[in-house]
């Protein structure tokens, strides 16, 4: 028999401790406490970016798949990832203009989407439900998406995991691709916890339409006016979800407490990188798309997606001369588009009207330039990746460019980023103009682009080679 004079207190303490541990075990993630096992298994497997992984796509008739690729039809495919079989995976081509142009030029290098539970309910790759294989379309450097996501992650923006993959089809070499985590259930759980909010990928049906909802403008309280958002929901929103998002857009567009409707810190960090990479096929460009929108408890966040046409390699709507690297190396950080476009992009424009947020935006640029570029991190990481992937690019049978073009593209990419960082440092300290209007009045010397030629990073003409 236990005869301790404090036995009653000990028992009560033990019971309370057990209750506390049980509560944390059940509710810990909802309270923001992540267990040691919270990191998904796929993070240290497929998305270990220290090596090139292998994926073998096993289909009975690859030619039939290629013929149907333009329709984005899912095919049943056995997928072997780093030697491990995942049967009955859904496989389809992905992309908009890239998919159309690959077909038009008679090529076979489509970007691909793999959905592990499409044909086999509940199947996943260590918790991952879906991922893409990016084909580096118009990216001779093979670096644009990888480095853009790395910069976003460095700045604390929820970003997809990615890693390089050597893809084979029925054992035959197909090429070097970039595996990218799709922002869906696994991504949402990883970044926002088990009780995550709503995720959307706003996109237009026609670029010539008004597309005010893609631009995140408040239109009315009618959900039907936001079809380009709700039609592209990753999780089925109910009426309450829709009303909450519309209310956030109303606050964003008409004034009020912006921090009640926008996760300001995250959004400013996102735009810091977005403006650096001069991605004009994005929310800050004429198209206004290529982003994910996350909403939780009435607050909005904007998440990164699709950078193969970033680093000033998107021509639609760009000022002449299209290929003048000096224009985009010195592109102004405070007005990264014309007044016509900026006035229609409230998530950027309306935050920039607030002096506190504007100063915060500049402080994040200082953090990015000093921590990622001036520290040598960019140089080291770029060199590491190029050493890793060069042997694979050299033997890539479906590459959009030659190995020599890859080397030139990577060199141009590096120069563009290094010079862009130098220009932004000048814009921050006031020695270079940071707005379009200031540039019109500026008579000094900009950062010289040297012999950098933007098409070296990838252009449509490469598809003819």
Automatic annotation (TrEMBL):
Name under which the protein is recorded: CotH kinase family protein
Domain of life: Bacteria
Species lineage: Bacteria, Bacillati, Bacillota, Clostridia, Lachnospirales
Pfam families xrefs: CotH
Keyword annotations from UniProtKB, A to Z: Kinase, Transferase
Matching PANTHER family: INNER SPORE COAT PROTEIN H
Keyword Kinase: yes
Family matches, as InterPro entries: Spore_coat_CotH_CotH2/3/7
One GO MF term attached to the UniProt entry: kinase activity
